[in-house]
Design goal:
Number of strands: 5
Helix content: 40-55%
Low-confidence stretches: none
Mean pLDDT: 83
Radius of gyration: 23 Å
Largest sheet: 3 strands, antiparallel
Structural class: mainly alpha
Length: 320
């Protein structure tokens, strides 16, 4: 599966050895995801639901299989594919139920006896009761978020990224030419060889930007900190945005899901820590324009927190 993922990423994105597959799969103009792991999980979940609707006796058989897996602890994602029961008999997870359990384990989820997909940081997805048109979307988002979290644990530039705002990304890409999309995908994949990286591998002696002649000490230098590029920037308000107010993943072209708080930037940076001074630029980042507006938003946040507590909702798992 890893080889297939790499082959697809090579076709649709950069071939650089240091690239991340996250950018290749996320930066696509169409909503359909091309990651084989995501596609397989979605297909198995939807086919499972189809079997439930088509064959009345299928549900009982599935619950019996899940119970048997639970008895030998095979349903735990941390276990190997094969496990032995008390009599030393190897039980293989196979068939539509076993393979679905395996795929869910890969995204840190599991299938319980009520035919629900459980995840510690996501809402429970019922394979039996979720509407058809919503089931595919929910399972796909679960798989994509797992891919995103994995990439965040492996690449420093994605460290703050918990979930990609696919709707915002697709809307932005719809206004771009194929050449511009290729550039965005290349940057989002972290495939660019920066001057600093070239120096680290011995390709050159100095870590100096060829455009502004300044030391390149940040991987996003060419996009946000290079003075020569800054002078050519066409968006006037972007010239006033301080790069430190943007999360690193956004600087490379991947918008994260907006936070639920409304008194800070869209990505959770408090007003007191923001370095952007232009009012228009601050409003584009989601910051309140004046203290009166800030106080109003702060009171709304406190009201929302009380609602979360009264409803027993885990506020730390929510976003906008």
């Amino acid at each position: 599966m890893k080889a297939l993922q790499a082959a697809i990423a090579n076709v649709i994105g950069s071939r650089a050895a240091k690239r991340s597959q996250l950018g290749s799969f996320e930066v696509q103009k169409k909503m359909k995801d091309l990651d084989p792991e995501v596609v397989i999980l979605v297909r198995r979940a939807t086919l499972f639901r189809r079997q439930l609707d088509k064959f009345p006796n299928f549900e009982k058989k599935v619950k019996d299989i899940i119970q048997r897996y639970e008895e030998v602890d095979c349903i735990c994602p941390e276990l190997d594919f094969e496990d032995e029961d008390d009599e030393g008999i190897k039980l293989r997870r196979a068939g539509p139920v076993g393979f679905l359990i395996d795929n869910l384990g890969e995204v840190k989820a599991k299938l319980n006896g009520n035919l629900e997909i459980e995840h510690d940081e996501e809402q429970t997805i019922s394979l039996k009761h979720t509407p058809w048109q919503k089931l595919k979307e929910d399972v796909q988002e679960l798989a994509k978020k797992s891919r995103c979290i994995k990439a965040a644990s492996e690449r420093k530039c994605y460290s703050e990224l918990k979930e990609v705002d696919s709707s915002a990304l697709k809307a932005a890409l719809s206004k771009r030419t194929p050449e511009e999309i290729h550039i965005i995908r290349h940057n989002a994949s972290l495939a660019t060889w920066t001057e600093q990286r070239k120096q680290e591998v011995g390709l050159q002696e100095e870590n100096v930007c060829k455009l502004c002649k300044q030391v390149e000490d940040d991987p996003s230098h060419s996009q946000w900190r290079c003075l020569a590029v800054h002078e050519e920037r066409k968006d006037t308000y972007l010239k006033q945005v301080h790069p430190d107010d943007l999360p690193m993943h956004l600087q490379f072209g991947l918008p994260g899901a907006m936070c639920k708080e409304i008194h800070c930037t869209f990505w959770g940076k408090p007003k007191a820590q923001a370095k952007t001074r232009d009012d228009t630029a601050k409003s584009k980042l989601g910051l309140p324009k004046d203290n009166k507006e800030w106080v109003r938003r702060e009171s709304q946040n406190q009201e929302a927190e009380l609602i979360y507590q009264s409803k027993g909702i885990k506020a730390e798992l929510l976003n906008a």
